[in-house]
Amino acid sequence: MVALATAALVAAAPASAAGWLPHPADATWSYVWSDTAYNPVPTTEAVTVKESKGSSFVLAWTTIDQGNAPEAPTSLGTISFQETGGGLVNTDWSSNPPPPNFPVLCGTINQCGNSLASTYYNLIWGTRVPVLAEPLLRGESWDTTGGAGGDVSASSTYAGTEKVSVPAFAQPVLAAKVRTEVTQAGALGDPYGSGVRTVWWVYGVGPVKIVFEHSGGAPAPVTTAVLKSTNQTAQTAPPDANYFPLEQGTKGRFRWTNAKHFTKPVVEDYTVDQVVNGSARVTFKSVSGPLKVAGAYGFTARLDGITNLWGLTKAASLAKLPPLGPRALPTSKRRHFFTPFDLMTFGFNPVIPAYPSSGTTWKGVTSGRDFQIYGVTGSTVVLGVRNVKVPAGSFKALAVKSTLRQRGFPFGSGTRTSYFAPGKGLVKLEFRHDDKSVSVVELVK
């Protein structure tokens, strides 16, 4: 069976409007940066909002009239960003050339558009799309490219939160820590363009500290930038619990029972076998039971939640399950319940919001692609964290309850409660169908 699903998000609780890089018109930041080899003199840069339109905005920086020493480099420029469902993206930049003593970060000296002679250039180096991936959840990692010629590659990992001290705040502030391994090849100064960079982000403020440990040299150069002052206020970040991790290599086994329709449990294994830019493919295969299944599903993690994008399953069944709708589709195009993920994704997206909290609700609607595929109406609510015990262990899991109605099809109607454990994903599901049967899914290992 081929079954395509798409995102049809109706309403999910959004994160605070503050964001990881807020940009109200009056926002200001002041950074001090230095480099142990090429700019040992601490240099202050003032950063302001030049313009903002919709989800796009431009920041401007300057070292002029900032009280810098005469030997400090002069730097002024602009940098453009866009807020997207997958995170913060850098769309453009411009500035005066870097000081002549800095390494050349291109294959030729002439018309080189690369520089690391400012705070924000160190921030976006190798990580333009995205600069910061969202939702920012535990265990998340992403690969990016950057540089004027796209010759800089980077691999970033969210390393959790920690307190950091910077001059802008009287007390240490809680920051999200992102570690990036950066590689540049083919530039005259590519050792300097490579290395390990760590950025500390404070919600409601932006980056507050950057440390770039470059490759080459003995000792190798280190660039450091810290936030000296700002008129922005640190805020509490959205929760970073990852209730549906899309990490390549993740494996598990589910047991699915339905006493009315199965004489034996259906046991199936799943594997997350491809992950690209927050999107993943999850495959299923049969272990035992009356269903012989091979299947694959596509999911994506964005700010509008965990969304099921597509599904493809083939099955041979020794059990006769009731049919599903909708009547508007021919029988060959209708969904079937062949795996636990068929039960979990049935109805409408998202599976869960990006930053779920107790009381968050969303509804299915009678338009959009999800309705075309499923023909299901209803609503979903996040119940909060519950204690759940399954063969794989005991978990404090997020409970999400859906009331579903597929007109004319009692097996596709009823009440579904799914339980998601941090770092594990789905650990239990109970679907009380309107045909008086109950499907129970449990994580076995």
Would you spell out the secondary-structure blueprint of this structure?
Blueprint: E1 2-4, E2 28-35, E3 39-53, E4 56-62, E5 76-84, E6 87-95, H1 119-124, E7 132-133, E8 141-146, E9 152-164, E10 173-184, E11 195-202, E12 206-214, E13 222-230, E14 251-257, E15 266-276, E16 279-288, E17 291-302, E18 305-317, H2 340-345, E19 361-363, H3 369-374, E20 376-390, E21 393-406, E22 414-421, E23 425-433, E24 438-443
Q: What is the N-to-C succession of helices and strands?
A: EEEEEEHEEEEEEEEEEEEHEHEEEEE
Question: Major sheet, described briefly?
Answer: 12 strands, antiparallel
CATH architecture term of the largest domain: Beta Barrel
Number of strands: 24
In whole angstroms, how far apart are the ends?
27 Å
Mean pLDDT: 93
Per DSSP, the total helix count is: 3
Low-confidence stretches: 1-16
Class inferred from helices and paired strands: mainly beta
By CATH, the topology of the largest domain is YmcC-like fold
Count of separate structural domains: 2
Strand content: over 45%
By CATH reckoning, the class of the largest domain would read Mainly Beta
Looking across the biggest beta sheet, what order are the strands in? 1-18-17-16-15-14-24-23-22-21-20-19
What does this structure look like?
The structure is a single chain. The chain has 445 residues and is mainly β. The protein folds into two domains: 2-9 and 241-443, YmcC-like fold (Beta Barrel), CATH 2.40.360; 28-230, Lipocalin. Helix content is 4%, strand content 49%. The chain is built from three helices and 24 strands. It has helices at 119-124, 340-345, 369-374; strands spanning 2-4, 28-35, 39-53, 56-62, 76-84, 87-95, 132-133, 141-146, 152-164, 173-184, 195-202, 206-214, 222-230, 251-257, 266-276, 279-288, 291-302, 305-317, 361-363, 376-390, 393-406, 414-421, 425-433, 438-443. The strands form two sheets. It has a twelve-stranded antiparallel beta sheet. A twelve-stranded antiparallel beta sheet has the order 7-6-5-4-3-2-13-12-11-10-9-8. Strand 11 (195-202) and strand 12 (206-214) form a beta hairpin. The longest helix has 6 residues, at 119-124. The protein is elongated and about 85 Å long. The model is unreliable at 1-16 (pLDDT under 50).
